[in-house]
Amino acid sequence: MARILVIDDERAIRNTLKEILEFEGYTVDVAADGKSGIEAAGKQPYDLVFTDVKMPGMDGIEVLEHLAGTTVIMISGHATVDTAVEALKKGAFDFLEKPIDLNRLLVTTKNALDKQQLQAQVRTQTEEVQSLRKQLRLQHEMIGTSAAIEHVRALIQKVAPTDARVLITGENGTGKEVVARLIHAQSQRQNAPLVEVNCAAIPSELIESELFGHMKGSFTGAVKDRAGKFEQAHNGTLFLDEIGDMSLAAQTKVLRALQENEITRVGSDKTIRVNVRVLAATNKDLPSEIAKGNFREDLFHRLNVIPIHIPALDERKEDIPLLINHFTQIIAAEQGRAVKTFTPEAIAALQQRHWHGNVRELRNMVERLFILADDPIEESDIQLFA
Question: Which of 257, 278, 311 is the last residue of a domain?
């Protein structure tokens, strides 16, 4: 229950307020003047303070100034409108006139404490959001200082502020999604949505509905109108991951959307204008797929305005120590545990390995060692748990 301090030079007022508020279940302390009230507040934090305005020595306005950050309600039987306005301007929650109406007292007390609780909840939620954003930033940073990764970073900085389409290529696990997120975050569309589509994870018969939306009744299961990913990404960025796995039929419609900047929902003949920047990624060799008849050459040229190739981890092993440290920090935060260290011999052993799964595989290895090995993590642990 809330703790309340009543500061008033009139004993009858102090005792009456104390009795009423304690009857409501609050814990109440009293002080006979402003100086002793401030001293009490310095020793014990209070959820709410009532203070009289007119008191000998230090008046209520001075008390209010000393209790910045504390919820304060002013009380007075002689105050003018100017005094009340001054108190409210200086941060008082409310101003009650003597003789104090009982209902007004209880309602004001409840409102003040409710507001304080709400502010505390907002602060907590804000801190949680900031923590989550920090974790997301950590998870989507491009770590490394090798020449290969610096080249990628330089390309991102050049292309991000433009609306040019980008085709991101590289093996599985190299961080193509990270590059897409960095491009969006550094673009002029950063405050608009980044909508991601994994083209390999959506059945070919549903990809058109997923991308372009559908109308109610257009096929079995279409129980209501639904906007597709192009509409959801309007004024933002659409990231088509694993574009090489998209069906030829869907490729044709994507090509038209890129040419015309408009889409048509499945089951509709109405066109919808869209303003979308498209980023695409694939682990496939699209020129080879074109030669096999699996990918449209005209779509390839539409997407491949700015090509960015992400090097395999085996091509930048000098970045492995930085990546290990980065992943250790993330995993420790996720699991609420102390950060573990890797011995130089353990790091050297990881640098000597072949990373078929690239950065993703390294991250999994670091997490496995973090969970199973003691601190510090040694070369023998890698041999044991690899």
Answer: 311
Closest CA to 97 of 74, 113, 63: 74
Q: Count other Cβ atoms within 10 Å, centred on residue 57.
A: 10
> Which CB contacts under 8 angstroms, 24+ apart, belong to 91-100?
91/64, 92/64, 96/50, 98/13, 100/17, 100/75
Report DSSP letters for 190-247, one per residue: TTS-EEEEETTTS-TTTHHHHHH-B-TTSSTT--S-B--HHHHTTTSEEEEETGGGS-
Strands 48-52 and 3-7, sheet pairing = parallel
Q: What is the pLDDT of residues 182-199, one digit of tens each?
A: 999 999 999 999 999 999
**What range does the domain containing 353 cover?**
314-385
pTM over 0.70: no
Q: Tens digits of per-residue pLDDT, 280-317?
A: 999 999 999 999 999 999 999 999 999 999 999 999 99
CB proximity list for 308: less than 8 A, separation 6 or greater: 152, 155, 156, 159, 166, 167, 168, 169, 179
Burial of 138 (0-12, 13-18, 19+ CB in 10 A): middle
Q: What single DSSP character describes residue 27?
A: E
If asked whether residues 255 and 369 sit together in one domain, one would say no
Residues in CB range of 69: below 8 A, 6 or more apart: none
CATH classification of the domain holding 20: 3.40.50.2300
The tally of CA atoms less than 13 A away on the side-chain side of residue 29 is 18
Structural domain total, the chain = 3
Domain boundary among 311, 344, 366: 311
